[in-house]
Automatic annotation (TrEMBL):
Domain Ketopantoate reductase N-terminal: 22-166
Enzyme Commission identifier(s): 1.1.1.169
Annotated organism of origin: Aeromonas allosaccharophila
Keywords: NADP, Oxidoreductase, Pantothenate biosynthesis
Protein name: 2-dehydropantoate 2-reductase
Amino acid sequence: MPSGLKNSRQPVIPPVTPKWSLLGCGALGGVFASLLTQSGQSTRVLLREHHKSTLHPGIDFTSLEGYVQLLNIERGFVSKPGKIQRLLVMTKASQVIAALTPLVSKLDAGVPIVLLHNGMGIAELVVEMFPHNPVIAGVTSHGAMQCGHFVFRHTGKGETWLGPINDAAKAHAALADELALALGQAGWDEQVLTRQWQKLAINCAINPLTALYKLKNGELAGPRFADALQQICVEVADVMCAEGVATTAEELQRRVMTVVELTADNYSSMHQDMELGRETEIEAITGFLLAKAARHGIAVPVNQGLYQAIKEKSQAV
């Protein structure tokens, strides 16, 4: 064999499976993808097909401290997702089922699915779709903003909690530790349902009001909204107690006002969706509450009024 051909065949290097695959790259998805990448954890974002013609060479990320960085994050598409090690679903609640549907026959059994969206009632549907996969619910209070095409800004640091929806998920508590490397804090809670309800209460209070009145979160701290916020918390507390989740209206209101203060300069996700003419998450937030209230025969007039107002305003856009 001529010496020049001796090493002509290069070894075949198998493709590396990213540690995290993120389904959805909206405001929060873009921020989480950026933080995971900055922490040294290999990350891929899975996009819908229409993004093929509008790909950006990288993600333009602005940190909480104001540092701007162009991050090279692997892109994939749901039609050909490749090997997935763990799936972090970052779409809006109303988009979760549609986004996951193309993966039903492509996701290996045993791959954990982590759901991070506002509202409730979606995780149970995902368990039905993927009966052989661990399904994990998450709640987070991080603030995020999308400022352009693959341009994201981290606007607020918060807490993130994960917990099991099915028995198979209980073996994956270590995922919270790995997320914590990127987020600064992330915990595992076997009783994540309680945290989901607490987050729902916060969303029921902040999101519809800020969207309807075009406010920053901090503007809810004034006396104008004191009665409405109090009544929203009373109604949510009544439903939570009927569902077996112990709480008080006072506790929920303290949580709401803490978030209002910590995110004073932020616009809620529902406000951003409404301003941009996008579908809101009202069905998975207040709509979920109304359905549970009806089941228990509990009157929730303030939440009902906000739900109707958001629906009417959304249709008028």
